[in-house]
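User: I'm new to structure prediction. If I give you an amino acid sequence, what do you actually give back? Let's try with this one:
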Amino acid sequence: MDTPAADLPAAHADWSPSEENFEGGVRTPEFIGEVGRLRSECPVAHSDLFGGFYSLTRYADVARAALDFRTYPSRQQFARIPALTGIVPGSLNPPEHGLYRKMMRTYFSPDRMAALSPMLRQYAVEHLAPMIERGHGDVARELCQPFPARALSALLNLGDQAHVELQEQVKQFEAVDWDPDQVNAIIFTIFSQHIARVMAERRAAGTVDPDSDLISGAMSMQVDGEPLTDEAIISIGVSVIGAGHATTADALSTSIYRLATDPYLQARLRREPDLIPPAIEEFLRLDAPLPEMSRDAAVDIELHGTTIPAGSLVALNFGSANLDPEVFEHPEACIIDRSPNRHLSFGHGAHQCAGAPMARIELVVAIEELLARTTGFELDGAAQRAPGLLLNGFSSVPLRLTPR
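Assistant: Good question. You get back a string of structure tokens that encode the predicted 3D arrangement of the chain. For your 404 residues, that looks like this:
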């Protein structure tokens, strides 16, 4: 029988993520045990942090809430059509959200991703080569952070050197603590001027071609016969950069950390490279780069003996859901050929990550090239967890590498 949060000890009723839950960017056994206790004893946990929020920890509850946008709508509703003024795409709810997603799917289609894949592989090789030649390097700083920035620059057609500026801007975002309002403000401050400058340059040069890139596609898009507002276009560009860099960089860093500390796993994936894509899915399940996503409670919600009052902030705990033994056999084990693997690390429902196809390609080609070009690699010092509580990854992973 489920125990209401109010009847549990304070450590459970007022659970919240903390620095003590992590060693580097990887969850400790203590963290895994704590979320396990929450799932079994307090599946609707409460924290007073950030003004107070409720956290859903079971897979079934998280998945159901992610699909039910009427009961659990996105945290803020910025637009009411006329050209989607001032949208933040992740904060839209259907049906408006569908208009944005339809345009986004065009640029993450299988054909476009296949065309982009050779360029991404070239980028991965270029970032790996100096480290492998030296026999050592910080893979978080030399690959995990610049590589996704470069991939986004290609996707948005910003020019090859734009990734240097993007990477510096992203560092400011990644250091922010887990305050949704502060995060949204900083994302816009950091990236909006960059996107606005790109839009102005394309209009002046007459180079707005929807077939070329996502920003030009948004600049050419119409809703009810009206073009998107500049603010809406900027919001789309900002959301792609903000969501597409940090999560991919952190997922790559935790994946490489896991490989660096497990020579058997390295050896197996070198022998069986066809297992790299499913291994990436398992790494994502175990170390979700975005452990939680926020929603609002539109009405009073009764769940497992706890009342979530209307208007409350609700966190969908993807990290905990991915470890739910009701869904995943031996959930704490890294089973690289796990099938099926219905992890929620890219979200679920209408707000599932639109850029997941590109993130998967980036992760696969980077791991493939790292394994193919070395006979082994291991930690060459202590890894450092990325600052802030928003994401789950590393800012530094020093490696010693043996070239093939």
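You can read the tokens as a compact description of the fold. Here is one thing that stands out. The chain has one domain: 5-403.
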